[in-house]
Amino acid sequence: MQREHIEAEIRRRADVYKPQTHLIADYYRVRRKIAYPLPIRELTLPELPIPGIQSYPWSIWMTWSLEERILSLGWAASWLGDGQARRLAVSGLDALADWPCYRQLPTPDLSSGHALRILWHAHTRWDWLPPGLRRKIERAFHRHIEDTLPMSDAMHGAFDSKDDILALKEPHTALHNIPFIGTVGLALAANGNSHPSADALNRRLEALVGAILDLRETGHSEGVGYDGYILDFAADWLGTISPCRRAALMDHPRFGDVLDESIALGAPGDVANIAQLSDTEPREMPFHVSGHAKLYRYRASPRTGWYLNRCGVRGLRADALAALRGIADDDQLESPRAGAIDAHYAVVLRSGWEPDDLAVAMAASNSKMSHVQNDNGTIVIGARGRWPVSDPGYQQYMKKREREFTLGPTAHNAPVINGMAQTGKPADRRVVLRKRNGTTHMAELDLTDGYPAGLAMKRVARTLWLSDRDLVVVADQVRGGSVEAITYCWHGHPDAAWWVQDNMARVYAPDLTLWIGSPQARITDQDVDRLPGSRGHLTLRASADPSAPCVWWVFAKGDTPPDVSLHEQGCGIRVDGRGFEISRK
């Protein structure tokens, strides 16, 4: 990524921020935008009613926006000598240092993590801060530590090492992103002010990070959006401890898992547009890229360099741009291998990362974290920088129709059996990845344990193939109990147009056509609808023959619908001459 491109982007952002008299916070999940008068001298919580939520976390998105504003202005002052940007950054920091409290919750939380990180960033990176402001920031560090450290001690003080966390009956309950990020804010403040609590907080974070890494061995994840959020804050904190202690964590065999997720789940032609499985939000939460950028200076790798060079500057947060500007351009870039890839809470089959390539990602997780939904087997299909077969990709907290759209039975595209979708995740993650030949890759996932016990299912399994750069095939085996109905909901990209012909649905964009069909389902215009709560996705809802030994679905790129025929008493299929068959176990 070229330095001049990074500086031009910071200049563009600073020029947007300079005339603003209010900070705009976009609460996109509840469709609200708030204009906070500048400068902001305290944590103010709007009293706008949010149906079904008594205390909405307004502070999160406000501090996200404040961080972007102050860091963009501050780096424009540092790199470009922009005097107005410098004055506005100083004004914003002076006001932030006045806040009597940085948290919304009675715990180290996200707003405190971001607010303290803004102050730490300025205090440690910008030598042009006025001395009086620098002292004021140090007093703010001390004030916050005195306020919040007792809450951190109550939550995590009993953990002297990762083994204490791993010994818990439910260790994942101690590892949620909110208190972790708030604890990083505390540690940055303590390290930035040489506070007596610094060593204890550093050891606490070593225990939390170590436990997260160990648990990843058995499937722990919050999805790339939130795994990356943790990585982003951990990367800042890792820069404040000794190289030896930093290396002890970065040498863990699972430390690179989030990079695996970021690379594997990127859309062909736009690697930063990650697959929207579970609670992801690729545009709104690019924190994983920030984490990779910050860690690159400690452990450069051709693979990470390749990934960062593929991410455009417009979608990155200001701290990621600052980290990338300090990295010399590296010609030793290594493109990752395509094929069948384990992305840890998903599996991915892909022909490559170029716009003409095809990728299919399938949710496959046993994680107990709530940001990873009960969506195993759900697939999204990517090409041309987007995901034409999609998923809501987030969870709506308001108890209205949109919550049902993002979490209800129609939210995902694994089979809905007798009106019932999955209600859990298996204890073990049973995934098979295979390469059938040079251009065909296969993944198989057992979904049985995810369905309600009352269905008495003996086997529910989804087999997935990617063939060349134009074809995805899905085979669902549903056996046991009394299967009276099998239904599907295939969501298209929110901007896609649809057409139905020859018993197949066409998902259309000017540069891409993807055909969707099944020989066991009847598809008409009436089956394509916008479900209540959708933010633009149209959905193909179809019922399949419950007596079939296997339900087949075909997704084919091309201007004309593919030729599809069943073989082997329904246990095999041919698509434009290419054959696929399930084992009859």
Description:
The chain is an alpha+beta fold. The protein is built from 15 helices and 24 strands. The chain has helices at about 5-15, 60-80, 85-95, 110-125, 130-155, 160-165, 175-190, 200-215, 225-240, 245-250, 255-265, 285-295, 300-310, 320-325, 400-405, and strands spanning about 20-25, 30-35, 265, 270-275, 340, 345-350, 360-365, 380-385, 385-390, 415, 430-435, 440-445, 455-465, 470-480, 485-490, 495-500, 505-510, 510-515, 530, 540-545, 550-555, 565, 570-575, 580. The strands form 5 sheets. Strands 5, 6, 7, 8, 9, 10, 15, 19 and 20 form a 9-stranded antiparallel beta sheet that branches. Strands 11-12-13-14-21-18-17-16 form an 8-stranded antiparallel beta sheet, with no helix packed on it. Helix 5 crosses helix 7 (about 175-190) and helix 9 runs parallel beside helix 12 (about 285-295). The chain is globular and about 80 Å long. The termini are far apart. About 50% of the residues are buried. The model has no long low-confidence stretch (mean pLDDT about 95).
What is the percentage of strand-forming residues? 15-25%
> Major sheet, described briefly?
9 strands, antiparallel
Average residue pLDDT = 95
Helix content: 25-40%
C-alpha termini separation:
51 Å
SS elements, strand count: 24
**SS summary, helix count:** 15
CA-atom Rg in angstroms: 25 Å
Q: From the helix content, strand content and strand pairing, which structural class follows?
A: alpha+beta
Shape: globular
Runs in which pLDDT lies below 50 for 5 or more consecutive residues are: none
